[in-house]
Amino acid sequence: MGEILLLYPPVAKPSEPPAGIAKLAGALRCHGVDCVTVDLNLEGLDYILRQPAAVNDTWSRRAFRQVDKNRAGLSNPVTYQNFDRYKRAVADLNRVLAVAGREYDLELSLANYSDKRRSPLRSQDLLRAVAAPEKNIYYPFFSQRLTELIESRKPSCIGFSLNYLSQALPTFAMIGFCRQRFPELAIIVGGGLVTSWVSRPGWRDPFCGLIDHLSAGPGAESLLTLLGRKPENLNSAPDYSDFSPLQYLAPGRILPYAASSGCYWNRCSFCPEKAEGNRYQQIKPQVVIEELDKLLTENHYDLIHFLDNALSPALLRQLAASALKTNWYGFTRIEKILLDPDFCLALRRSGCVMLKLGLESGNREVLTAMAKGIVLDEVSQVLFNLKAAGIATYVYLLFGTPAESLAKARQTLEFTAAHHREITFLNLAIFNLPLYSAESRELKVRNFYAGDLSLYGDFIHPQGWQRQDVRRFLEQEFKRNPEIAAIIKRDPPIFTSNHAPFLLDI
Which CATH code fits 252-503? Predict the structure, then answer.
């Protein structure tokens, strides 16, 4: 059996190595399958940043002139000691990408790839990318890099990890190139976006004959089965060894780690995880600690990024009782165990520097309608406990849900402002309706992101609280509140929570 080539395509935030193919690599190598993992997202970024361009304005000239300085700066802790210097480095790199993208009618950034002519939500546009890979901005890079990899490695198959819409068009352009240049090569595509597509009711594969296998879910079991191997240890630790020499855009080495898949709560209304039927699977908490100890012993990491939809109470207890060799952060529900100040202090001693919290609303009726299982009085105590323990909070709010009105949104404003001392960062989002959630059947749905691969839609709001009304409220009221504006001002541009832990001492 030949080697397996696992690729992570552009565009995604380039602050840490890709967890999905590292997890696959760990499983494959544990079963004796040779593989190599390649971060084409990071390599593609460096390719674009080094392309010359004719620019006339002062900002663009400065941005192109200082690419190397800014690229190195975002990997240097000193840059993060001055927030203005940090923001300028991010903005200048983003400017270079934006200028490069214009020639191809793209809105290109450190975290996004948006084509004004083609949509990743339409299968016909993805197939057009397949038919003309040479029209993709990354073509000079990936045509050479893929040829080099395939001719030197001679893999038996090639796998693409497709997680975000921003990766879809570049991924399919690469598939098109591989089909033209190496037609005998088997192609597998997996990842979060593919899982969402395949989980749609009545899914019919528009890429049949082009892609040999679309892999839904975690992927290791189906890939091993395809390779003729009996899956025996699917909880093997991720293998990041191929990424160790790479310099990501972060001031320290980040270890992405998933202790579970799915969500243990699995009750929230309109939840995509629930709509897709993703089962909750958790690695035993003690095994998580053992794996992390091993990974941290083998390589130096400055920060662990837990990727779980929500860290379970059992894992939080295990973490609080452990002494990891480095700091960590992750997403958790506002659970009762966080009402204990001593427990929060134990979490901080274990290395917890930040928790991401899905509050969503400051109105009791909205939270009840969303089945969040959150009590606002308890939220106040949890926020206070975490602040006292020295743990930063990244609070997520969601506006425009079917149960919300302007009056209820204003209660969220009031709650947020009242807790401005305890909230370190904010993530503000406008509700998108998952088209295939059970709750969507009770609403009048209309097209939002038009395309046969769309996962979300617009709806007629039961209380007349339409998207334009929500946007107006956020811009004219919520963000203009002085206490809230100060929180929003702290948010790291583009990288948001991925860089937030590195800015906590500012």
Answer: 3.80.30.20
